Structure to design on (680 residues):
């Protein structure tokens, strides 16, 4: 399998203007030193809680955000070093589907206008060609050509998401980022959209990045994945390996937090204490230490390295990778004593 | 449940109907809903978007504006009182003190320019006539109980200075302030992250048991129901389609819609690259299908289902299902 997209030490920082009095001036480290590779033809998952930098990372992949540092390579070429024309051309091969099917479509455009817009922008001006293509796309996503002149408000959430998908695939992209495409949808529709994405992948030879906070979806859908926390990757690599043996305490906590509907299996689970800390001027050390049930004293000060612990399975955790041998303060590998953990049903 | 239950009824709702007249036609949001909630139990009202959950719960608290809503109800009894006979002023006294509500979006239910401590103090001052100091003492104790670290300091924070999970806890603290008989929580954890959701649900459930409150939990999330509720009402297109104790519902769902919903919830133990779906979409509230509202999406639908609306029919202790062809335990296997 070849690599389609490679991120090398990518960071995205946003300045904080200090407009809000309770915030100290500084910067938001939305994405911090992320390296990963996405293989051609796979579904790559990005999981993590709100604000951990998933959307920012994905926007960087498709060239919507320029990284503060590091490189984004698409088919081996640094996206941000391309001349303008080339950049535009390459960008067309990457598309994004958004979470909210209600606000991501322009309510004043009809379906034909929405779906054909990318073609129009590219310079297509033959009405008949575009109509035929839109009809074809609508059929492909499970709508009908007859829906062409209706408006977004006439459609349900799931149908609007289908319109968004039709638009995203209109220019035959090879790389599609789906940013929480089903989070806003009902469960019964949820599965329909994910099945559609799978079907299109096969038909059109697509590579997906699938962003989600639902681990169960990611497990079912993705070949490889990255677990993010506060702008950093905690664990990444082969999905089967990670789910068979999650090594990072955060991945383990996320898995434990998936409420199961198998009633007989309702179990006492460890609930992760505390809140997600702010990404503004994050502390040194492991970004997860404040909530980590297994943190050691050294985790507070020394950030873990991101290490490949087995083939295609990366982990950033001192529990797994150990501390450096030298210059360690006394008791660095002793457990950190803190708030009691809450227990759940 | 069964014999063991103290049959003290907190809420009795019979035949609630709510319609909204609009330019496009009549929206039948709630069509004849019955609801019973007993002392100390957690009842879940679960259904997909637009099924009428919020409208039902708002009608119970008499919070629905009419107009635009047209409301009809045969019985609305709360702790033995007929709520339909009360004036708005009497209702206001009940709300907050005997019945409280927790909404999904803490940011819009809290006053942005008042410290959260002060907002909880207000509840004590209004309902018990407490002094400023006495109220604050109770507030701090309450915040501590709900799991807010450094409650004394946090009481002086404004809503925007707290995280989403923390704000939701403040709402819980406010709702439990007067030890109400009933709390209605409308999607209380939907906006929260998974790990925070687990914390807040745990706290909610713990407080509810500790305080002896009854809870009506409104949600679209079956996994929340499985981990929290005692009894469940499943709603579809404005009607209750199944009612059951939580264990019975999850081990042997009877209504084809319930069965489909459960199959559609992704699980960590599932097969890869395949999602079980329910075909079709929820009907438009203006143009509902003939017969059983679920028939266009139902694998078991027959001619009768297309023609006639099934009634909510008893199926064993504490269970009811609205379907001509309910799935028995034996038939569950093949879907
Ligand atoms: N344009 C921006 N300017 C300043 N800060 C930003 C900007 N975009 C994102 N951020 C901040 O960067 C962090 C990461 O945001 P991002 O939207 O990538 O998170 P996310 O993981 O997609 O979250 P969610 O699950 O809520 O969508 C957040 O703290 C966010 O507030
Ligand atoms: N003020 C209103 N005017 C017109 N229609 C309304 C009004 N309020 C609710 N409805 C309609 O009543 C129906 C039921 O709405 P309700 O808010 O109870 O759904 P819900 O089950 O709570 O859904 P959700 O999960 O999306 O919150 C919907 O079709 C909705 O559009
Ligand atoms: S009544 Fe008929 S259509 Fe409705 S759920 Fe039962 S079998 Fe399906
Ligand atoms: Mg996002
Ligand atoms: Mg609602």
């Amino acid at each position: 399998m070849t690599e389609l997209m490679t991120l090398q030490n990518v960071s995205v920082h946003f300045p904080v203007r200090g407009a809000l009095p309770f915030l100290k001036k500084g910067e938001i480290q939305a994405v911090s030193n992320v390296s990963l590779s996405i293989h051609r033809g796979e579904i790559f998952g990005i999981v993590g809680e709100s604000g951990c930098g998933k959307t920012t990372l994905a926007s960087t992949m498709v060239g919507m955000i320029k990284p503060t540092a590091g490189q984004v390579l698409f088919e081996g070429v640094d996206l941000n070093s391309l001349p303008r024309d080339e950049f535009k051309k390459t960008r067309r091969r990457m598309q994004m589907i958004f979470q909210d099917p209600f606000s991501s479509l322009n309510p004043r455009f009809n379906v034909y206008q929405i779906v054909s817009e990318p073609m129009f922008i590219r310079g297509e001006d033959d009405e008949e060609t575009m109509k035929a293509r839109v009809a074809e796309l609508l059929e492909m996503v499970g709508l009908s050509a007859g829906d062409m002149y209706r408006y977004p408000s006439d459609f349900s959430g799931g149908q609007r998401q289908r319109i968004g998908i039709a638009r995203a695939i209109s220019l035959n992209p090879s790389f599609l980022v789906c940013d929480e495409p089903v989070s806003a949808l009902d469960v019964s529709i949820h599965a329909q959209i994910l099945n559609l994405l799978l079907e299109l992948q096969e038909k059109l030879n697509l590579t997906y990045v699938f962003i989600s906070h639902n681990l169960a979806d990611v497990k079912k859908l993705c070949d490889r994945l990255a677990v993010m926390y506060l702008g950093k990757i905690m664990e990444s690599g082969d999905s089967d390996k990670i789910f068979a043996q999650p090594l990072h305490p955060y991945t383990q906590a996320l898995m434990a937090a998936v409420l199961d509907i198998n009633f007989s299996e309702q179990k006492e689970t460890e609930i992760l204490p505390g809140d997600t800390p702010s990404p503004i001027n994050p502390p040194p050390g492991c970004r997860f230490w404040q909530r980590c049930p297994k943190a050691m004293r050294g985790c507070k000060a020394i950030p873990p390295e991101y290490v490949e612990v087995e083939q295609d399975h990366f982990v950033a955790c001192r529990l797994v990778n150990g501390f450096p041998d030298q210059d360690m303060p006394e008791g660095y590998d002793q457990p950190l004593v803190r708030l009691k953990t809450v227990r759940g049903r | 449940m069964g014999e063991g239950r103290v049959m003290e009824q907190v809420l009795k709702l019979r035949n609630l109907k709510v319609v909204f007249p609009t330019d496009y036609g009549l929206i039948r949001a709630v069509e004849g809903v019955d609801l019973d909630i007993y002392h100390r139990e957690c009842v879940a009202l679960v259904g997909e978007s637009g099924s009428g959950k919020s409208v039902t719960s708002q009608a119970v608290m008499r919070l629905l504006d009419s107009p635009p809503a047209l409301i009809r109800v045969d019985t609305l009894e709360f702790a033995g009182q007929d709520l339909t006979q009360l004036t708005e002023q009497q209702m206001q006294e009940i709300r907050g003190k005997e019945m409280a509500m927790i909404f999904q979006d803490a940011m819009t239910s809290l006053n942005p320019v008042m410290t959260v401590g002060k907002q909880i103090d207000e509840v004590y001052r209004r309902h018990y006539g407490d002094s400023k100091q006495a109220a604050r003492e109770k507030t701090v104790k309450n915040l501590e109980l709900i799991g807010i670290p450094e409650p004394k300091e946090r009481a002086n924070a404004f809503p925007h200075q707290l995280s989403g999970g923390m704000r939701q806890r403040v709402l819980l603290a406010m709702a439990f302030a007067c030890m109400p008989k009933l709390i209605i929580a409308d999607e209380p954890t939907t906006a929260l992250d998974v790990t925070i959701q687990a914390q807040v649900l745990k706290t909610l459930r713990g407080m509810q048991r500790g305080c002896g409150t009854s809870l009506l939990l409104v949600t679209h999330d079956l996994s929340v129901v499985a981990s929290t509720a005692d009894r469940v009402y499943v709603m579809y297109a404005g009607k209750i389609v199944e009612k059951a104790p939580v264990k019975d519902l999850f081990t042997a769902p009877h209504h084809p819609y319930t069965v489909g919903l459960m199959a559609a919830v992704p699980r960590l133990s599932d097969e890869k690259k395949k999602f079980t779906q329910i075909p079709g979409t929820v009907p438009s509230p203006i143009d509902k299908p003939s017969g059983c509202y679920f028939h266009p999406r139902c694998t078991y639908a027959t001619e009768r289902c297309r023609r006639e609306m099934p009634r909510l029919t008893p199926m064993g202790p504490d269970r009811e299902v609205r379907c001509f062809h309910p799935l028995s335990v034996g038939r569950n296997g093949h879907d």
Observations:
- The radius of gyration of chain A is 22 Å.
- Residues 340-345 of chain A have pLDDT under 50 and may be disordered.
- Residues A 14, 28, 30, 48, 50-56, 279 surround adenosine-5'-triphosphate (ligand 1) (CB under 6 Å).
- Chain A is about 30% helix and 25% strand.
